[in-house]
Specification:
15 helices, alpha/beta, Rossmann fold, binds iron/sulfur cluster, binds S-adenosyl-L-homocysteine, 17 strands, globular
Length: 458
């Protein structure tokens, strides 16, 4: 979501004549877009602010701004602590960013703006979509959150949940498709409750509207809250051809006691029931999740319940976090905190178990053909070591199930047949922990791909 916000910042400042700089040293304006979700992210932001002092000394005219959740949370305190920071702008102040920058550059004022309002930001205005020109992109469909999980800072720094109008979302996606985007990920803290407050269409209806956009090949979304995962959404996986075969469904804990204290509003049993229903509709659907270890009061039995759930579900992959206090979140005041040592031990155990299932899922794909949307080149570490047969350039893309596949050219495949945005059939030959390796195979285009090429050619 922060990537999307950063793109919005860029589109706000382009009319003022600013362009992206190659390096911090060359920049006249530095904007730090911060995240406060966990302690580590916040610490990272503060240590980065420290590094900026040298740059300001070298170039006194440099304008330094801090936005995002840490800005919203700390406000004026950031200006007091870092004398060289010019602007602190909160999560609802983005629309006033150009005005603030003008004021700073002309009047050399220092400004803190953390005012919140009840308006949804409508960005970008029609006709000027935000894009990085790639094959994949993100579109925010809602902001804020009303769920108040007791560990979480989001409702306190992003404000109440607000959904964008379907027309604006569709227009933004159409604009992105016109620039070459083929896969969109719809973003929100709890997309399952999209439109409910405002009486807009339901989330599955929105998915249907999005999937009707010509030239768009794939639709993804994140994040789903298990309590709001409806039957209608489960059926969308069966009915919408463009909807990818993957859901990220954060469980956080397998213990009912902890789920209650987290204010998650579902039980372990309800979560497992929803997983069953999803798998009945689509047996090979990839399911990923988030888990927090060491939430205040988490006993060995509570942790064991999480481990048992992870073993039962066999997630495709897991984002695992050690609980950390967030000052504005209620759990920071819970008394029965878990020590760092125990949190470390639990995290390691959980990671080890999940690694087994991730590898198992990856290995099961060896020998199969997967349709990949090519979105770039692979990073070196994804390739693994000692793979002589895979020497050369590695193209990279994702399966519908969101698994990263890196591949080189097969004998029967010509280099010109591959480019970013192409949909390619790849035979999976090797399973690594974070990715798969394969070779493209010549197959007949899928009916949808043939149709898509005609649409593009038209
Ligand atoms: N809206 C999404 C989550 C957004 S935050 C949802 O409800 O699933 C992403 C993840 O960060 C959360 O799922 C949670 O696992 C983790 N997280 C949030 N606050 C945390 C905290 N205080 N300590 C550790 N992990 C946290
Ligand atoms: Fe945070 Fe819970 Fe809202 Fe997710 S649903 S953003 S975890 S409060």
């Amino acid at each position: 979501m922060n990537v999307y916000d950063s793109q919005q910042i860029i589109s706000q400042l382009t009319p003022l004549g600013y362009e992206l700089s190659e390096s911090l040293d060359a920049a006249d304006l530095i904007i730090v877009n911060t995240c406060a979700i966990r302690e580590k992210a916040e610490q990272k932001a503060f240590s980065f602010f420290g590094r900026l002092a040298v740059l300001k000394r070298k170039k006194p005219g440099l304008i330094i701004c801090v936005g995002g959740c840490v800005a919203q949370q700390e406000g004026r305190k950031i200006l007091e602590r870092f004398s060289y920071i010019d602007l602190v702008f909160g999560t609802h102040a983005l629309k006033r960013l150009p005005e603030h920058i003008l004021n700073i550059s002309t009047k050399r004022r220092r400004i803190s703006d953390v005012e919140m309002d009840n308006e949804i930001l409508e960005f970008p205005s029609a006709g000027s979509p935000i894009t990085n020109g790639g094959a994949t992109g993100f579109v925010t469909i809602m902001r804020g959150c009303d769920n108040y999980c007791t560990y979480c800072v989001v409702p306190h720094v992003r404000g109440p949940e607000m959904s964008r109008k379907p027309d604006n979302i569709i227009n933004e996606i159409r604009g992105l498709v016109d620039t070459g985007m083929q896969e969109v990920t719809l973003l929100g803290q709890n997309v399952n409750s999209y439109g409910t407050k405002e009486g807009l269409c339901s989330f599955p209806k929105l998915l249907k509207l999005v999937s009707e956009i010509d030239g768009l090949y794939r639709v993804r979304f994140t994040t789903s809250h298990p309590k709001d995962l409806s039957e209608e959404l489960i059926f969308a996986f069966r009915d919408l051809e463009k909807l990818c075969n993957h859901i990220h469904l954060p469980v956080q804990s397998g213990s009912n006691n902890i789920l209650k204290r987290m204010n998650r509003k579902y039980t372990r049993e309800l979560y497992l029931e929803k997983i069953d229903k999803l798998r009945k509709i689509s047996p090979d659907m990839a399911i990923t999740s988030d888990v927090i270890v060491g939430f205040p009061g988490e006993t060995e039995d509570d942790f064991k319940a999480t481990i048992d759930l992870v073993k039962e579900v066999e997630f495709d992959s897991l984002f695992t976090f050690q609980y950390s206090d967030r000052i504005k979140a209620p759990a920071a005041k819970f008394s029965d905190k878990i020590t760092d040592d125990i949190k470390n031990i639990r995290l390691r155990e959980l990671l080890e178990i999940q690694e087994y299932y991730t590898k198992k899922k990856h290995r099961a794909l060896i020998g199969s053909n997967e349709l990949i949307l090519v979105d770039g080149f692979s990073k070196k570490q994804d390739v693994g070591s000692g793979q002589e047969e895979f020497e050369g350039i590695y193209w990279s893309g994702r399966t519908s199930t969101n698994k990263v596949v890196n591949f080189t050219f097969g004998n029967s495949f010509h280099e010109d047949d591959i480019s970013i945005g192409k949909i390619i059939d790849v035979k999976i030959e090797k399973a690594l922990l974070h990715s798969l390796l394969g070779k493209p195979v010549k197959t007949k285009p899928k009916p949808f791909e043939a149709q898509k090429e005609e649409t593009h050619a038209a």
